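Task: fold both queries, return tokens.
Query 1:
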Amino acid sequence: MRSVNETLNALQDELRSVEAALAQPDVASDLNRLRDLSRRHKELAEINNAWVRLQAAQEDLDTAKEMFNESTGDGP
């Protein structure tokens, strides 16, 4: 079973793949493929944006905990 991090990292890889496919000139001439890739890109971009915000929030929380521990004299 994959961890959440592994799954989300795989989705980030898929997002990069979809972006690369969308950049191919032949995709513009295949409207069905363009539509499908565009829809998948939107889905993956939303997930990726939420993941990036969650990681930033976790880093902020870790920093705040460190600052609190330093200010109160509590060590790890």
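Query 1 returned. Query 2:
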Amino acid sequence: MFTKISKLLTLTGLLFGASLACAQDSKALIDVLIQKGILNQDEAAKIQKDLAKSESANDVATSKGKFLQKLTISGRFHIQYAGLSTDIDGTAADPVSTNHFFMRRMYLGAKAELGEGWSGNLNYDFAGSTFDAAFVQWKRSDLFVLDAGFRKVPFGLEEWYTSSSNLRAIERSPGTRFFVEGNNGRRLGAGSYRTGLFLGGKDASGLFYNVALTNPERDESAAGVTSQGSAANNNVAYWGNLGYSGKMEGGTFVVSGSVGFLPDQGGKTLGAGNDLTVYNAFAQFTSGAFDLQLEYFGSKNDKGVSATQDSSSSAWSIQPAYKVGNIEYVARYSYVDSDGRGLTTSDLIRSAPSGGTMNKLSELFVGFNYYFRGNDTKWQLGYIAGESKDTVTGAPAKATVQGVRSMMQLNF
């Protein structure tokens, strides 16, 4: 019969060995000790609980700041393949096709929580050498969350409301790209990344709001986010959003509307007095395995076509998805009307060769997502058929894009 002292000594030695083994080995050892009468059930349960804590603990070195309560590290890997070709009507030589693997995103982020609602957020994309987020947050309550720094403004379903890790059609729609990606004389450069102040919140009923006061220009580079501005952008842009999310019979929904006013950011080329106003509305309905997303963009662009002609570009998209087991089937149709401002296939269909400057573009995406470990590890594959048509002068013309896109995601 073991004495109390010998029992403790035996346990100490055995559990030291168990701490070096995996969880399954530890459980097997404890089961043997119970059978031998060395442990009772209560003692075994307590030891298993302590071992679980030990096995889940990690050594993490921090700055040991006085108020640091929690440090969270996150990351996202997007490895993509694009095989796309563009055919331009009436030309003997089409542009060279895209046939390439590349790192679409490689995010590494950190969030430090300091208590009493204070936190700091940093996310950087090593694949694009760009910032994704860098801001200080003070959360007084669910209704009052204030961010100061660099992040996305509240504009767009795919761009702001949905993380890139949750895009069912791999890339954002041509409409989203036309409205939010950098101004190149065709795209508008509204929405997405800005530096400024952001205030938002949500009440218990599901009503949410967001407002922001930011620099007018979109910029993710180190030089851009540290810039003190110039005569071209020493203004502020204003953003507002109001939405509602809730439950419906058999599912959930969200509806939202946003507006942004960007002084001196309109025109064919940026200039004083060329203001840009953009609008967005979206809805998402989810019921069991089915999901439906609808989105619309509109704009008022002073001198958006020329020094004597404004433009009112618009876009819309519809995306249904249905999941069966680990496979989710997705389709999306998008349409963009530049209203004379101009667009190219390379502007709006990522990685596609340019088909020349046209006035309108449509895109159909059909594909599927396979979820290996939920959304954290998934493979996506889809077929793309796009068409740009009509030159900005109104003359008939057409360019078509066809091909496949695939992406592997690891999210942590």
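Both queries returned. Flag for query 2: The longest strand covers residues 70-88.
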